[in-house]
Amino acid sequence: MALNRNDDKPANAAKQPAPKRKAAQPRLLSGGNPQIAKADGDAPVQAYLAAMPGWKRDVGRRLDALVTRTVPLVRKAVKWNSPLYGIEGQGWFLGIHTFTHFVKVTFFRGSSLRPVPPGASKSKDTRYVDIREGDEIDEALLSMWIRQAAALPGGFLAASKTSGKQRIGEIKRVKRATGDPSASKKITNGIAELGDRRGQTLARVRKLIHDADPQIQEEWKWAKATSPGVPVWSHDGIVCTGESYKEVVKLTFAKGASLKDPKKLFNSSLEGNTRRAIDIRAGEKLDEAAFKQLIRAAVAANYKAPIRRSTKKS
Questions:
Q1: b/e per residue, 28-43, with b = 16+ CB within 10 A?
Q2: What are phi and psi of 238, to 5 degrees?
Q3: CA distance 221 to 31
Q4: Which of the two ends of the chain, N or C, has the fewest CB atoms closer than 10 A to its terminal CB?
Q5: How far apart are CA 75 and CA 73, in angstroms?
Q6: Does the structure show a pLDDT above 60 at 230?
Q7: Measured between alpha carbons, how far is 28 from 30 in angstroms, rounded to an integer?
Q8: Model confidence over 78-130: pLDDT tens digits?
Q9: What is the pLDDT of residues 135-189, one digit of tens each?
């Protein structure tokens, strides 16, 4: 009688599945930049972010989340081993690239943004922001730049395949918002009429506000028989007001309750659900850097309406 070699094995023995192969990790190019195949959509961008080495991965994911939150209709792609962000029909307004010691954020029309991003480029239109390990990311300022860049009618576009080159689309420059000249004059006159340390404080605060956001608009509101009115600084809505009292200069932020205030500048109107205020008394020194951060955060908080693509045909 012939013996079957498999007779000693249980009849119901399960066949062992073949071990799964691990997905190949993207190759890291010079400077640690991930090599990702050219493709449109969020998936290739997420693959790039996941492959960024070390601390740069968290920076990349934070930048991606900030762009997505600021511009809900953003279009994404990976081209030339860099994530690109744009608006359909308008080209790309921002790119990310990994280098050995920093993550480079590229604003392709950066020279049109206010304030202008710090990093210069060989292209007169392009500006950079380099983020190094341990750098504190100013999300309010970045959000302001992202919003401006996404609103520009144009951007970075790929030229024809035959040329293999790149070009910058023609766009209009962002004009600095000047607001109401008569309101600015009233603010100037009001500061001069105070003629004491309150006027000096308001003048200094006014400069800091414009330094933080050169597109801020000045307004003069709520004038009535019992009050000459109040200085107001706005950008897509009220940012803050400036009032002078006998003992304090009060700066009230319209959406202060929703703003991060790590330096604890807010010291008044703390009980409400919307507004917060800074009372500056004689002899007190304002943390100027933190104050400008608050101004930028307040401007970013006013950016609620999503960017919508124009439906007009050219």
A1: eeeebbbebeeeeeee
A2: -70, 130
A3: 54
A4: N
A5: 7
A6: yes
A7: 7
A8: 999 999 999 887 889 999 999 999 999 999 999 988 889 999 998 899 999 99
A9: 999 999 999 999 888 887 656 653 223 233 333 222 233 333 445 678 898 999 8
Say if CB 71 and CB 150 are below 8 A apart: yes
Structure tokens that stand for 114 in this block: 């206010």
Report which of 271, 255, 314, 264 is spatially closest to residue 291, judged by C-alpha positions.
264
Beta bridge partners of residue 107, listed in sequence order: 94, 127
Mean pLDDT for the stretch of residues 56-85: 95
Residue type, 267: N
Burial-class residue 17 by CB neighbours within 10 Å (0-12, 13-18, 19+).
Answer: exposed
272, two tokens: 């409400």
CA distance 67 to 47: 17
Among 214, 131, 130, smallest CA distance to 179 is for 214
The token pair at 275 is 């507004």
pTM of the model: 0.56
Helix, strand, coil content of the chain in percent (nearest 5): 30, 25, 45
pLDDT at 17: 67
Average pLDDT of the chain to the nearest whole number? 83
